[in-house]
Design brief:
heterodimer, A: about 250 residues, alpha+beta, 5-stranded antiparallel β-sheet, elongated, B: about 250 residues, 4-stranded antiparallel β-sheet, 3-stranded antiparallel β-sheet, 7 helices, extended, ribosomal protein (chain B), ribonucleoprotein (chain B), Ribosomal_uL16_dom (chain B), structural constituent of ribosome (chain B), Ribosomal_uL16 (chain B)
Chain lengths: ~250, ~250
C-alpha cells in the first residue's frame, strides 16, 4: 500500500533514488559519490557553459612562406646553439648556388646505400644526408628556392656534384637505384620538376648544338638561297618579280 | 695452434685493412654531429636539514581542558571535506607534490605506508615534507552485533579530513618530473579519493588557462549570475553549495 501511495504521489521520480532513500549507515556524508543530475540541472549547466574560441593551430598543408610565421605565433623557440650552427651551414649551402637534386628515400639497407654512394662518386656526384627538411624549410622562404617546398616533406636525400659534373646523366644512373625516387631539383640556375629533368637529360651537348648552328649558318652561305642571290642581275630581277606575284596571289 | 692463429688474425686490424682494400674504393669514416642535452640548473634549490618524512602519531595529544583528559567523540561532519581548499593549495617549495582532487579522510595507515615507501626512495639530493596534519578527528564505531541506540559508541581511530585541491605531500631537490612521477604515483593511487601529481609548471599553466577563459568567455549567462537570479526556476534543484561554488564542488 505504501509503495502504491509513493508511486502515485507527485515527486515520485525525485524520491525513487538510492541516495534519497538511504538515510542510515552513512557516517561521513555523500561527497565522494556524485549524485545523479536532473534534466533541469543538465540543461542549466549546458546553457551556462563557457564558450571560448581557442586560437587556431597552424594547419599542416600550407605553403612554406606562411609556415614559419604561423609556427612562431604558437611556439616560443628556445635558442639552441647546435641548431643555430646547423642553420648556418644550410644557409651557406644555399648561398653557394650549386645545383642539386632532391630524391625521396624509401627504406634501404646501409650496404645498399654504400654501393649507391660509390657508384655516384665514380660519376662525380655526392650524396648529402645532413640537410634535413626542417632546416631547408626554415631557410628557403624569401629565396629563389621557395618553390621546392612541396618536395621537402618526407625522407629525402640530396645529390650534389663535387666536380661540376653534368646532371643529364643522373636519371639513367638513378634507374639502377630503385629506392631513390627523383622528385626535382635546382640545375644550372633553373628549378626543374621530374618531367622537366627527363627532358633536360635528353637535350644534346653544347658541342652538338654548336655544330648544328654552324651547319644552319653554312646553308645560308652555300645553298639554294645563295645560288639565287648571287646569280645574274636579270635572272635575279625576274625571280623577284615572280616572288612578288606569288605573295599578292596568296594575300588575295 | 694453427686454428688459434687463424681466428686471431681475423680480429686484427690487418684483416680489416685487407677487407677494405678488396672493395673498389676505400671506406672513409665520416663524423656526425652529437646532440648534447643541457643539464638543468639546480643552483636555486635549498635542501632543508630534515629531508625525510616524519612519523605521524596515531592518536593526537590529549585535550587538556576536559575534566578527565579523555578524548571526546565528535560528530561526523561533512563540512571538513566539502568544497575547495582555500589555503593549502599551493606548493611551498615550488617543485613537485601530490594534490587531492576530491574530498575525503586520510588515516594513519595511509600516512605510514607513504612514509616508509618515500623515505626508502629518497636520495641525498632529495627531500620530502608533509602538508597535512596528523590524524585528529575521532571516528567512532559500534561493536559487531550491537543494535541501534544506547548512545554514541567509543572512538576506534582518528583521521584527517582533506578538501579538494589540498596538497598532501611535497617532494623536491635535484630531480625531474619523470623521476618524481614514478615515486608518487603509488601515493596517488592509494588515496581514497582522486589525486594527481603536480609541478609548479602545471599549476601555472592551469591558472593562465583559467584566466584566459575568464577574459575570453563569449557566453553572457554565467552560472553564478543565473543561479542567484533563479533563471529557469533552477533554485528548486540547486543546493546552497552550488550557489556558493558555482556547481563545481
Amino acid at each position: 500500500m505504501a509503495a502504491l501511495v509513493k508511486r502515485v504521489s507527485p515527486g515520485w521520480h525525485l524520491y525513487n533514488n538510492w541516495n534519497f532513500t538511504m538515510a542510515r549507515f552513512i557516517q561521513k556524508g555523500n561527497f565522494r559519490r556524485k549524485k545523479r543530475t536532473l534534466t533541469s540541472q543538465r540543461v542549466f549547466l549546458l546553457a551556462t557553459e563557457e564558450i571560448v574560441i581557442a586560437p587556431p593551430k597552424p594547419p599542416k598543408d600550407i605553403s612554406c612562406t606562411k609556415y614559419k610565421a604561423a609556427s612562431n605565433m604558437y611556439k616560443e623557440e628556445v635558442p639552441n646553439p647546435y641548431f643555430e650552427f646547423r642553420n648556418k651551414l644550410c644557409k651557406e649551402f644555399l648561398e653557394k648556388d650549386e645545383s642539386f637534386l632532391i630524391c625521396h628515400r624509401n627504406p634501404v639497407t646501409a650496404s645498399a646505400v654504400y654501393d649507391y654512394r660509390m657508384k655516384l662518386k665514380q660519376k662525380g656526384f655526392r650524396l648529402v644526408f645532413g640537410m634535413t627538411n626542417t632546416l631547408l624549410r626554415k631557410n628557403i622562404p624569401g629565396t629563389k628556392f621557395e618553390a621546392l617546398a612541396p618536395y621537402l616533406v618526407s625522407h629525402n636525400v640530396l645529390i650534389t656534384s663535387s666536380n661540376g659534373s653534368d646532371f643529364r646523366s643522373l636519371p639513367a644512373l638513378l634507374r639502377k637505384m630503385p629506392e631513390f625516387i627523383l622528385l626535382g631539383g635546382y640545375v644550372d640556375g633553373m628549378l626543374l620538376s621530374r618531367d622537366n629533368l627527363m627532358k633536360y637529360s635528353k637535350l644534346p651537348d653544347l658541342d652538338t648544338c654548336r655544330s648544328e648552328t654552324a651547319g644552319i649558318l653554312s646553308l645560308i652561305a652555300g645553298g639554294k638561297t645563295s645560288s639565287l642571290i648571287y646569280s645574274h642581275a636579270q635572272t635575279l630581277g625576274a625571280n623577284l618579280k615572280q616572288y612578288e606575284k606569288q605573295i599578292k596571289e596568296e594575300s588575295d | 695452434m694453427s686454428t688459434k692463429v687463424y681466428l686471431n688474425f681475423y680480429n686484427t686490424n690487418a684483416a680489416w685493412v685487407i677487407k677494405s682494400l678488396s672493395k673498389p674504393h676505400s671506406y672513409v669514416q665520416s663524423a656526425a654531429y652529437m646532440k648534447i642535452k643541457v643539464a638543468p640548473n639546480y643552483d636555486d634549490i635549498e635542501i632543508p636539514e630534515k629531508k625525510k618524512l616524519r612519523m605521524m602519531d596515531k592518536v593526537p595529544p590529549p585535550v587538556l581542558h576536559t575534566a578527565s583528559n579523555l578524548a571526546v567523540q565528535q560528530r561526523s561532519e561533512a563540512k571538513y571535506c566539502r568544497g575547495p581548499e582555500p589555503i593549502h593549495n599551493k606548493l611551498n617549495y615550488g617543485q613537485y607534490g601530490v594534490q587531492a582532487l576530491d574530498g575525503g579522510y586520510l588515516s594513519h595507515k595511509h600516512m605510514d605506508a607513504w612514509r616508509l615507501y618515500i623515505n626508502s626512495k629518497l636520495t641525498n639530493v632529495m627531500f620530502a615534507e608533509w602538508r597535512i596534519e596528523p590524524p585528529w578527528k575521532p571516528v567512532t564505531k559500534k561493536g559487531t552485533g550491537k543494535r541501534m541506540g544506547k548512545g554514541k559508541s567509543s572512538i576506534s581511530h582518528y583521521v584527517t579530513p582533506v578538501k579538494a585541491g589540498r596538497i598532501l605531500l611535497e617532494v623536491g631537490g635535484e630531480i625531474e618530473y619523470k623521476q618524481v612521477y614514478k615515486m608518487l604515483r603509488h601515493v596517488a593511487a592509494q588515496c581514497p579519493f582522486d589525486a594527481r601529481i603536480i609541478s609548479a609548471e602545471i599549476l601555472q599553466k592551469e591558472e593562465e588557462q583559467k584566466n584566459w577563459i575568464a577574459t575570453n568567455n563569449l557566453n553572457p549567462f554565467s552560472f553564478r549570475y543565473c543561479a542567484r537570479n533563479n533563471f529557469l526556476g533552477i533554485k528548486k534543484d540547486l543546493s546552497p553549495y552550488d550557489l556558493k561554488w558555482s556547481g563545481k564542488y
